[in-house]
Design a protein that fits this description.
Order of helices and strands: EHEEHEHEHEEHEHEHHHHH
Largest sheet: 7 strands, parallel
Strand order of the largest sheet: 3-2-1-4-5-6-9
Distance between the termini: 40 Å
Oligomer: single chain
Radius of gyration: 19 Å
Structural class: alpha/beta
Shape: globular
Number of strands: 9
Helix content: 40-55%
Strand content: 5-15%
């Protein structure tokens, strides 16, 4: 199978290209910057696309491929202007889908289209969509527009909604959490009683490859690691992977949220204290998909990379 992957030089994209090549597929990688040949798989065909949302003829990009996997997007950064998020995360996706008429189109969305806190329950694909930030709104807007585009253009649309993705080369909040645990400083999360779903990058790319290959793959899929954990449990698991002591102190979650608001880290503390558990039942039932890596295995690989990068 010939596959186009956009965002191919990113955290998820680079791992997905390796996974698809290992499965025997031909991969065309749309990248913002060309990577020197010696540092990418020799069979990877790179195409330079500096701005996926710019005005250009996308038909040449999809020519000869049967499946498009669209990962390119602006990540959930609070300082992004909403109009720019819409231009890159929504408009660019729709234009690429229009060029890919008659093909399979796999779109990487986010669990954030459902919102930030599932209460005591667990999200499923048919639950209400209620994004609470600009990033989530841009992804939901893209999903709705892509559904209309797919219906008009004979596209086999697959939408993937992962939670927080971690693994080697991870950045942002998870990288910061690794640093906190590695420092040995006490963390005030012992009193947090929540449930969070995450997904190891190896599990995510395995799922995306499955969605690209399986004839029954259609519509939205929530995917995650097999188990959900509380924040103190996650800290303890990370500490074990890093061979560090887990130093956890009790503090009322309400106090943590108030401190986060004062410190300008409201969203980060909300994620560490709130619930966001998801159910991958649809992918398991329809496509017989199971995450190949356990949470502990994914954390061990992430810790190895982290220690190597620090060294």
């Amino acid at each position: 199978m010939r596959v186009l992957v956009t965002g191919a030089s990113g955290f998820v994209g680079a791992a997905l290209c390796r996974e698809l090549l290992a499965r025997g597929h031909t991969v065309r990688a749309a990248v913002r910057r060309l990577v020197p040949p010696g540092t990418v798989p020799p069979r990877l065909h790179q195409i330079l696309v500096p701005d996926i949302a710019a005005e250009f003829d996308r038909r040449a990009l999809v020519d000869g491929v049967g499946t498009v996997v669209h990962l390119a997007a602006i990540a959930h950064q609070s300082n992004q202007i909403e109009g720019e998020l819409r231009r890159v995360n929504c408009t660019a996706a729709v234009r690429l889908a229009q060029a890919a008429a008659g093909r399979r189109f796999v779109f990487l969305s986010s669990v954030k289209v459902h919102g930030e806190d599932s209460g005591s329950g667990t999200y499923a694909e048919d639950d209400a969509l209620n994004p609470q930030d600009s990033y989530g709104r841009s992804k939901l807007e893209a999903e709705l527009a892509l559904n209309e585009t797919a219906a008009r253009n004979g596209i086999e649309l697959v939408i993937v909604r992962p939670p927080l993705v971690y693994g080697p080369e991870v950045k942002a909040n998870f990288l910061r959490l690794l640093g906190w645990v590695d420092s040995g400083l006490p963390l005030p999360f012992a009193s947090v009683r929540n449930r969070r779903s995450l997904i190891y990058v190896g599990n995510l790319v395995d799922a995306i490859a499955r969605f690209a290959e399986h004839p029954a793959a259609r519509g939205p899929f929530l995917v995650s690691d097999e188990e959900s954990v509380s924040t103190p449990e996650l800290v303890s698991r990370i500490a074990r992977a890093l061979e560090r002591p887990a130093r956890l102190l009790p503090a009322p979650p309400a106090l943590l949220r108030a401190a986060g608001m004062i410190a300008g880290r409201r969203d980060e503390i909300r994620r560490l204290t709130g619930n966001l558990a998801i159910d991958s039942f649809r992918a398991r039932r329809l496509l017989d998909w199971r995450p190949p890596y356990t949470l502990d295995a994914g954390l061990a690989e992430t810790a190895r990379w982290f220690r190597s990068a620090r060294a």
